[in-house]
Amino acid sequence: MNSIRLMFSLFVIAFLSGCMTTKSYVDPTYGKTAYSDIKSVATPYNSNVSVEFRRNGTHFARADSELRGHVERTLRASGVVVPGAAGANYSIRVIVNNVGDVSGAAAKGFATGLTLGAAGSLVTDYYEATIELVDADGNTHSGSYKHALHTTIGNKRAPFNMQPTTPADAFGRVVEQTVLNFIKEMQEQGLLSFCEPVLPARA
Questions:
Q1: Superkingdom of the source (predicted)?
Q2: Extents of the domains making up the chain
Q3: Model pTM greater than 0.85?
Q4: Domain 3-188 belongs to what topology?
């Protein structure tokens, strides 16, 4: 699914600005964990996985499938969790809420469209994620995380001197970094126990 649907403010400015080039940038502030920070386990945890994508607090079911794909790929690549395995006695629930200012995005997009991209626009989509882990004993452990994705349209300089990517890839990185932050936090609490650093596995 086209990830532009996940960012409704981006959709608005893209619509108003026609075929002008859009570039997305993952905010470097929030990605605090790399795969090398994750500790391996003797046996990966089998876990059921459920997800829900929201836009300003309202469930947007059409984005659930893409969100699930990114979550499950990251869990597998961590080497710590095997999602959807038979006999799972753990469960992980991921809720991602895309918080955006649609009226502000529309105004910026309209101005960019009027100048045929000369003015340029920068729109930021904020993400608030809640991840819950229910262990084999039925205890719930949760964490809350924030992230942001910046998109330029028309003649606008890149924020933070970052390299641009596509909206689909940028959203995938946001989810990946958020899930890795969660796994590291759980391990620091003695959950999803570990013994040595691991490199990312192929999804």
A1: Bacteria
A2: 3-188
A3: no
A4: Rossmann fold (3.40.50)
